[in-house]
What does this fold into?
Amino acid sequence: MDDLTRLVVAVRDELQDVASGQLILTACSGGPDSLALAAATARLAPARGWRAGAVVVDHGWSQQASAAGAEAASVLEQLGLAPVELVAAPAVTGGAGPESDARTARYQALDAAALRLGASVVLLGHTLDDQAETVLLGLGRGSGARSLAGMPRRRGIYRRPLLGLRRSVTLAACAAMELQPWHDPANLDRRYTRVRVRQLADELETALGPGAAQNLARTADLLRADADALDVAAADLLKQARAASSDHDCDFDCHVLASAPEAIRRRALLMAAREVTGTSALTRAHALALDALLTAGDGARTNLPSGVIAQRVCGRLQLASSPNDQPTP
It folds into this structure.
């Protein structure tokens, strides 16, 4: 099977459940991965009855990047995609660094475009190489299983049909379709963490031999299955702890929680904290602090993000946005 066929088959298989008449958007930067993905979707759409469009997000980083985005939008229209939107992504400052802030801005722009246009699916061009790099990044940060599980194939309206394909496949497919992808100079700029990790992945292929990227991606698949199972167990534990307390949404029986295995218990504690704080910016330090409250004396407390306070009261763990909002003993 040649690379172009492999690409088209991967996209086709990922979209088997999409009904005729539905709008599929491809997030396209003009780079080889997303351009090949958009072209493959355009090829499949007429026979499947899909409406295939695209969104090009312009971060405004440079005149060259903005010009490349405009050129990509023009190429996508020539491929028969409609609608094609070139949208600006306003700068977001979340304090997590320029790469993370850009990603947040990009997804905000894609969310808004999908809602405005009524898209049922948004395709992302991440490849197996991107997945391997994500695992390496998580390892370097000392992350847990959920982070090491990498990018999911599906999350909400977003899908990644190319996670099983190497980056070389998209390059070859673009050549076969006589497409000229844009190669962003930023992808060679070592000031960016992702660029350094990409170079590290290449070095691993040299040191360990061919297949290192596939092995890292397989590790992500295995850890994702484990993380999913642990999430189910943690949610069930929270339900039991809530029912054994007062059935209040933010009130949990400490004995029920403390009797659970550590991996499930701490996962459950972070899950409860995320629900109350409304943020995913919780760390292992927060999990340890919450865990310590389960066996502490009544009145022990710890602060969480968003002004939330966790406190042990009469054998229960209570989470509230302020002391005045806490349930009474």
Notes: The chain has twelve helices and ten strands.
